[in-house]
Amino acid sequence: MSTNTKPRKFTLASRASQLAQIQTNIVRDALAAQHPDIEFDTSFMTTGGDHNQSQALYLLGGKALWTKELEVAMLEGAVDMLVHSFKDVPTTLPDGCEIAGVLEREDPVDCLVVRKDASWKTLEELPDGSVVGTSSVRRVAQLKRNFPKLVFKDVRGNLNTRMGKLDAPDSPYAAIILAKAGMVRLGWGDRVTCDLGPPTLLHAVSQGALAIEIRSNDDEARALCRSITHWPTEWACRAERACLRVLEGGCSVPVGVHTTLVQAEGEPHKGKLEIVGAVTSLGGERHVEHKIEAEVHTVEEAEAIGVKLAQVLKATGAKEILDEINVDREKKIEQAKANNEQVDA
């Protein structure tokens, strides 16, 4: 008598936004292409970060706002894998969770998007006093250095919402700044006015990369994730995340990076890593930046370079800037409480 064991079905989950669903389908399709005999399903849910689209990010609970509910569902066994924009994943995960896969990175740069009726092509062309929308303290801090006559205003919501706010007839915004990768994945690349790369703007840690989170005890899921992992992207992102972890940064801390990893010819797991990191004061007056180049043979060596970069930044002025930012954030939280705004701890 024969017994037929039905293959396990894997459910991938993410946020319910259009972009998150597209990204989850990208991962699902990559897994299905590598493992055609396995069934992969998807599930989408609304998170705390999606519910609260009005408050500035410094009043909210950090990056876990976008991942916590998803991780609870996974740890309870309701789903098997979580698909994230890697930049939204906290540098420290809950017990029992790990990042098991990282797909090849899209271009990680930020980009300028002007409203539909405008003819401006660059930040330099915007008239003095123009309002530029972004929810990123990192972007504002860096851009204030070179564009002090522009006005930066918070704009929350998923990409669809932010684009709608930009193009509204009564919009206060001349332009908004977004991660280019999201625009490309949504098929809106034609709305990108120009790229904002270094030295104008260093991007967020892990920006442009998709990460897959699993339960730490799920060996089968880990093996599947490893089969579609792009190791140069993984090593670069883990170096960036190690830097951020030491700097104790989060959504509201202006830490910018730019990383390249060039694979050594003929050697599958060896490359030259070049990583630039920067911390900028909220007003843009002070900016600490450093670059490290090194040959790396393992992901652990890449992470060690990220740690070293953070240590150099802290020793050359970043610690004082970050301490001031944390004090400023606490003051704003207290002010919001006094004004009876809801603050997520």
Question: Helix and strand layout, with pairings?
Answer:
Blueprint: E1 10-15, H1 18-34, E2 40-45, H2 48-51, H3 68-75, E3 81-85, E4 97-102, E5 110-114, E6 131-133, H4 137-146, E7 151-153, H5 159-167, E8 175-179, H6 180-185, E9 194-196, E10 210-215, H7 219-226, H8 231-247, E11 255-263, E12 271-280, E13 287-296, H9 299-338
Parallel strand pairs: 1-2, 1-3, 6-7, 6-8
Antiparallel strand pairs: 3-10, 4-10, 5-8, 5-9, 11-12, 12-13
Helix pairs in contact: 8-9
What does this structure look like?
It is a single chain. The protein has a five-stranded mixed β-sheet with strand order 2-1-3-10-4, sandwiched between helices. A five-stranded mixed β-sheet has the order 7-6-8-5-9. By secondary structure, the protein is α/β, with parallel strands linked by helices. Helix content is 34%, strand content 22%. It is built from nine helices and 13 strands.
